Amino acid sequence: MERRGICIAGSLIADRYYEVDTYPKEGFLSTIRSSTFHIGGSGNIILDLAKLDPDLKVKVCAIIGDDDSGKGLLDILSRYKNIDVDCILKENESSVTLVVNANDTKQRTFLYLPGASDAFDMSCIDWDKIDSRIFHLEYLLLMKNVDAADADFGTHGARILKYAKDRGMMTSFDMVSEQSDRVPEIIRPALRYTDICCINESEAEAVTGIKLCENRILSEEKTALALKKLCELGVSKWVVIHSPMKSYGYDVKNDKIVSVDSLKLPEGFIKGTTGAGDAFCSGILYGAHADYQLADAMRLAIACAACSLSQSNGTDGVRSEREALLLSEQYK
Questions:
Q1: Res 176 pLDDT > 70
Q2: Per-residue DSSP letters for 17-63?
Q3: What is the mean pLDDT of the chain?
Q4: For residue 231, what is the DSSP state?
Q5: Residue 193 — φ and ψ, nearest 5°?
Q6: Helix H segments across the chain?
Q7: Residues β-bridged to residue 264
Q8: With contact defined as beta carbons under 8 Å apart, do 96 and 13 qualify?
Q9: CA distance 205 to 190
Q10: DSSP string spanning 127-171?
C-alpha cells in the first residue's frame, strides 16, 4: 500500500469560550458578555495541517457525541475538502472545554468535560480505512482508556502506536503539559514505539527528569542531554524540544543536534498563545511527511507557531506553507 497523508487520532474537543466581566467568588454571579464556539484538542492540529497544504490528506480518527457540540465539530471539519471524517464515531457525549475569560484580570479558567475522549481506545480505530503515512496520537495524559495500564506494552496508548508502526506508518504523539508523578509511567512506554517526538521544555523535563531551564533560560547542555535521553527511551527518527525563545532537535539516524531561533515578532503581533504548540507540531509533522531535513522542518514549525500567535483563536492565524515561510523571512 502506498501511504500518504497524516492521520490524527484521539481527543477531539469542543471549546466553548465565554467572556465575562469577572470570575465570581463562590456563590456569586457574573455576566457573560459574549460566547463563541471553536474546535479544540486534536482539532487544532487537524485544521493547521489542512491549512498548510490543501492537497495534504488529513484523516481524523476520534469519537464525538451525537449532540450540538458534535455537530459543531463536524461542521467546522467539513469546511476543508482535504479533511477525511469517515473514521469519526458518534458515541457518548462530546468532550467539551468551557473557557471562561475574565475581562478585568485577563485570566482564563478552564472546565473540562472528558466525555467521548475517555472512551477512545484501540477498538475505535478502523485500521483498514487508514492508509496514512504518519499516525499521530493525541493527547496522552488526557484520555482515560488510552492512558490505562497494559500488561504487554505498558499503556494502551503504547499498544496503539506499536500497532500503527507495525502497519508501516511513522508514529508520533502529543501530550498535555502536566507536572505529576504519573508522567513518566504513561509517556515512556509510548516512546518505545514513536518515530517523531515533539514536546515543549516543561514536558521534556517531566518525562526525562532533567531540569532544562536555569533562570528561565533553556540550557543548551541540559537540553542536549534530554534529547539524547528521549532517544534512549525509544524515539527513532526526530526528537524536538521547543520553547518560546529557541528550539532544539535531534536527528537520531544522523546523530546530529540542531537548533533554530524563534522569530522576533513586533510589539502587538501576538494576540493569543492558545494552540501555538499544536501549530509548531503541525510544522514538524508536515516536514516529516514531505521528507524535509530536520532543521527545515523546525523552521517551518516556528513559522506556523508565529502565525498561530497572530490571532487569539488557536487556528485562525495559521496560513499555507508558503505564507508561513514568507512571514518567517520577514521576522527572522
A1: yes
A2: EEEESSPPPTT----EEEEEEEEEEHHHHHHHHHHH-TTS-EEEEEE
A3: 93
A4: H
A5: -125, 30
A6: 42-52, 68-77, 116-119, 144-147, 156-166, 183-191, 201-208, 220-232, 276-289, 294-309, 321-331
A7: none
A8: yes
A9: 16
A10: GGG---SEEEEEEETT-HHHHSEETTTEEHHHHHHHHHHHTT-EE
Q: Most confidently modeled of 268-272, 290-294, 307-311?
A: 290-294
Q: What gap in Å lies between CA 148 and CA 186, rounded to an integer?
A: 8
Q: Which tens digit of pLDDT belongs to each residue from 85-110?
A: 999 999 889 999 998 888 888 787 88
- Residue 204, CA atoms < 13 Å, CB-side half-sphere: 29
Total residue count of the chain as it appears in this document: 332
Question: For residues 325 and 302, what is the distance between their CA atoms, to the nearest angstrom?
Answer: 9
Confidence of residue 1 (pLDDT cuts 50, 70, 90): low
pLDDT confidence of residue 331 = 87
Residue with cell 495534504: 56
DSSP-based three-state secondary structure for 271: coil
User: Of the candidates 201, 24, 11, 13, which has an alpha carbon nearest to the alpha carbon of residue 109?
Assistant: 24
The answer to whether 318 and 87 have CB atoms below 8 angstroms apart is: no
Residue 308, C-beta contacts closer than 8 angstroms, at least 6 positions apart: 48, 275, 276, 278, 279, 314, 315, 317, 318
Q: Which three cell numbers stand for residue 2?
A: 502506498
b/e burial code for range 191-217 (CB count within 10 A of at least 16 → b): bbbbbbbbbbbebbbbbbebebeeeee
Sign (positive or negative) of CA dihedral 168, 170, 80, 92:
positive
**Which amino acid is residue 317, in one-letter code?**
G
C-alpha 160/C-alpha 171 separation (Å) is 10
Directed axis angle between helix 42-52 and helix 68-77, to 10°?
Answer: 20
Its pTM stands at 0.93
DSSP strand pairing (83-90 vs 238-242): unpaired
Instruction: Give residue for cell 457518548.
Output: 92
